[in-house]
Amino acid sequence: MSLFEIIKLALISLGRNKLRSFLTALGIIIGVTSVVAMVGLGQGAYNSVQENIAKMGTNLIMVLPGAASKRGFHGPRGSATTLTPEDSQAIERECPSVGLITPIVRSGGQAVFGNKNWQTNVMGCNDHYLQIASREVDRGRFFTAAEARSGQKVCIIGMTVVENLFGNLNPIGQTIRFKKLPLTVIGVLKERGETSMGADQDDQILVPFEAIQRRILGATHAHMFNVSARTPELVETAKGEITQVLRHRHRVKEGDEDFHIRTQEDIAEMAGSTLAIIGMLLGSIASVSLLVGGIGIMNIMLVSVTERTREIGIRMAIGAKTSDILYQFLIEAVTLSCIGGSIGILGGIGLSKIISYFISFSPEVSMPAIVVSFIFSGGVGIFFGLYPAWKASQLDPIEAFRFE
Amino acid sequence: MTQKPLLEVRDLVKTYFMDGVSVRALRKLNIRFYEGEFTSIMGSSGSGKSTLMHILGCLDRPTTGQYLIEGEDVSGFSRDELAVIRNRKIGFVFQGFNLLSRTSALENVELPMVYAGIDADERRTRAMQALEAVGLKGREHHHPNQLSGGQQQRVAIARALVNNPSVILADEPTGNLDSYSSVEVMDIFQGLNSRGISIVLITHEPDISLYSRRVVRLSDGVIVDDYQVQKRLIAAEEIRKLPRRDSLEEQ
What pTM value is reported for the model? Predict the structure, then answer.
């Protein structure tokens, strides 16, 4: 008996109990629908995070200070004050793979304009920041290298700051105050929205590093360096070069560094692995319903074998081999689960489309996810159909005949 | 006889175990069936005739003893080997017809050929011929529930014939039929037998056994009688004596 004929036979006998077949397949339909939609949701979240990280610039490298450790007291990571602007100049000079570098200091506080004030962040950086962070100026201009060097009291503000301090007023040329330091607004950053972690990237004031470091913080160290490699391929090389330079300058041995370097890839990996876990979790919860669907198939197949005992007896009497009966019932179960799987895939795609209206990112139903769910539903059919089919194939033809 | 037997049973013993008690259904039975014979196996219920039928039909295996089909000992065959023998060498006709419901007459007749691996075109041609041979031309696409008992039994005979078996085994084929249909079925059997097809018929009705050529009588698992029928009835003649009911059967 050819496979084609067995499938035809399976479709005929499934067609005889349309409602029952549909209800049985419904378990698989719901299972596959939820698996496809959930995996799509996970994939969509992952994609949107990766996209956001890529926006930071694919050749971005961050140099962060290590933990401060003085007289046995071990501070938190990033608390050391070992990164200096001189380090950043040395890196710029000595590392051929490094394109641009900016030291960064941050400070939080109230920005005041007229009778309005707004709690925001000030970031001190040099004139390369815009390029390194791949951001753009919407209105006005960024500060020049000369302004950066001489620590001019100018600033570029984000959209959120504009909205809260100026409303509909044109901010260019106005002067705001941050911790008593007057800053002239020379530009507005182009809107970017929130990071994947929910931080508002438009709630920022950019100020020349020299201005904020000396006048507000009164410190000489940088909180971090943002570096861009010449090309995305040179990121790892640049990382190595920076490590060498800083080890030499800070006189530390390997494994004893007072700084650490993170590339954009490291960040993407971290965020990605978290989301992958969430995605897997969603998928595995959904696959429980697929399992339940499989049990439904097994249940109905067992009922079907009992009901059709006489048919099995007739088939055996006229020459059906054990394997003929086994395949007949197995293929019936697999056909049922594959039909359920196909409908479920369509359902999952539909559900993802519906979900995409309610969330900010779009779920992505990938081809591998579809193929895997289809194979998986077929596998469920084989797994849960095998026992009933085996039971059918082991019937004794004489006993099967006596069955009414 | 010098002729080689078609089916041969040697020292056949079949013992059933039920609730720890062994029941000997057949006790050292020896019997031979020859090519072209039309044998009735008679006996009351419990005589072992159904057990014998199951073993002759390769549906069951002997406890001890041998069973040879065309000289080949099949008593040690596996399930699947027996399935092949049933498919190729034996055609079954049962009391309860045992057709697949919701399946057309044609598809029922095709079924043994499906398991024999014959391609669809040839299956169709041979099934049509077999149905025509039992007088069911024009009813190929009827389902069993659209056919009378006699017609259903004729579909079953067509199904038994279609793989050109060595022997047709009929287990009480007239048990569920009225007397007219019974004679009709016997007419078909006599027709097949006259063309050289061997038939083994199990029945408890003495009238029916008179259509065959040889009668074997079983009692308590042993053969008590084995004789040639002297005054054989010809079904075609008997039909004429019965009231016509063609008009009824058309319903």
Answer: 0.73
